[in-house]
Amino acid sequence: MSLKRRSSRLPFVTRGITFFLAAFGALNPAVACSVSASSTPTFLLRNAGAPVRARAIRVMVVGDSITQGHEGDWTWRYRLWQWFNDQGVEVDFVGPWKGTRPPDPATSPVPPPLQDPPASDDPGQITTGGYAVGVDPNFDSDHFAAWGRQSAQDKDLIRGMVTTYSPDYLLVLLGFNDLGWGISDAEGTFESMEIFISEARAAKPDIKFALGNIPQRSFIGEHSDLPSKTDVYNQIQAAAIPRLSTPSSQIELVQMRENYDCDVGGCPAGYDGLHPNVLGEYQIAQAFSRTLVNGFGIGTNELVIPASLPVRPISVPTNFQAVSSVTGVTVTWDAVYGAMGYELQNRLVGVDTWNTWSTTFNRYDTSWVLDGWEYEFRIRMSNGDAVKSDWSDIISAVCHPQTPPAPTDILTGATATGVDISWAPCGHDITEYAVILYNRDTVGSYVETIGIEPTSLSAHVDSLTPGIHYDIAVQAWNQYGGGFPGVGKSVTVGAGAPPAPTNLQITSIDGTTIEMAWCGSPEAAGYRTWHRNINDGSVLVGDDFSTAETKYGVAFLFPGVWNYEFCVSAINGELESGLSNCVVCPQPGEVAGGPVGGADCYSGVNWSATVVVGNPTLATFVPEQNVMRPGLIPAFPGTGATFPATQFPLHLSSPSAHG
């Protein structure tokens, strides 16, 4: 910024010295000065050796998790503090907090939050975490940044912060959580930022702002609109800053998004697709330093990212133990300082496939298990998506849970914008029920768990998206933990009774195995098969299991497939269609019924569970791997939970059903 432009922003008279400094700066290009009407001026002699300062610049860094950081991080705040020191610029970071976010404490399982919890006091922010080993002990780490923080929150808090700490500059990096968690759209998020600016100015009219724009993150299917919302917000912000900036309260844009190597296609600067790793910390600090030099004349050169970056320590967790407990099995290990998290794998003894769980603390308790199951475990440390330690040795333990049984008589129904669920009481000593919802249509969806008071045997969940298919289960909790879930019928939000399936087609694979396919409808949340033996006068019997897609495999049809007739119905909660056309199974190698697969034939989603009419054996098809595995069957889509096939009828499906 030119000296002429800078001097034009100075007040004409302030504490006697301001006019002199403004004039001196305009006449002497060796001096860059920054003064305000309410504070002692600060200036830097750029060509005269050591800098000369009347007092340090007071800077408040405002942000969310990207700015607060995780225990063991250096943080971009630290890299910016180092840059201030390298530039000879005295700075005083101010704010209510000093630390990063520590790991959550290792505790026994707790029930999910209640759907309508009573009002409670704000527990405050968790800011007690430490920094990377090697951080300068003189680091001035004061800040106003916390995980999960939104512009919508800070707009109501910033006036108090500015009044208390009187910063000269606000370095702000907010807005991602507003967009990412659906708090507001781009326009609403920037409205919050405008209020934030006006509230800060209400406390200190001459305060300066360096406003970072919002970074992109690697693509997640559940938030497919996030990239476009981020771009719109950044465009609105860039266009508004010249209008909002004033001579006494300057606002400059920090092009963080452009300098941060993170986008929908990948995030080399982030350890998890968003939050900065060592490289990302430097890139964010560099973006702010560039704005401070070019926009405010603070310092002479922007931060330079070193060619060699420090490596975050990683090691195999030690003291790894598994013991039988009231939840089934409890697994513990010694916490590793600075670990981003841990990956724990478990599997039933005798099974090849591992289930993988991620946790941020050094304890894991099994859930959804039955007495006598024996599990194997192994652990490794994780410092993000791409940095893992080696696996530990394998240990094992036998489950002896004292958790309640699964709820029964679960009834489900779709409403215009939600679901209704009810269930039968689950015995004594229940402390809470939990309704479990899984959006099976959206890639990357999380399982949502909602706590319900133990005196209630029903729930209504609203604000769901019409047309989305949800899988539903109910779990009971007692003093020991959550028990095995009972699974209800899936629902299609906003839909009524679905139409009957059409064009049922049966392919006989061999003498005892068939594959079925049919044309469904988007209103259907699932499908149920019906069968009968055509030789003994039996009536059609509906299977207890349903499938989410329009393909279904059945095995062990003794004494031969040609003795059986099948039909299909569509379900939406407790609503059920009439039957499709019924088809008698043809001879092995032949096809009957159909046709399916055309443009007008709705094929549904790509997940299925199928049921056996004959005798079950220990086997299941694993859709993700397109292979058969012994010993397990899928129980609730998307949860990763699996149960021994000896406990239930066999679910079996062929690879062709998962192309």
TrEMBL record:
The UniProt annotation puts the region (Disordered) at 94-125
UniProt-listed Pfam families:
fn3, Lipase_GDSL
Compositional bias (Pro residues) spans? 102-116
> InterPro entries recorded for this chain?
Ester_Hydrolysis_Enzymes, FN3_dom, FN3_sf, GDSL, Ig-like_fold, SGNH_hydro_sf
List the GO molecular function terms.
phosphatidylcholine lysophospholipase activity
Question: What residues does the Fibronectin type-III domain cover?
Answer: 313-402, 404-496
The name under which this protein is listed is Carbohydrate esterase family 3 protein
Originating organism = Amorphotheca resinae ATCC 22711
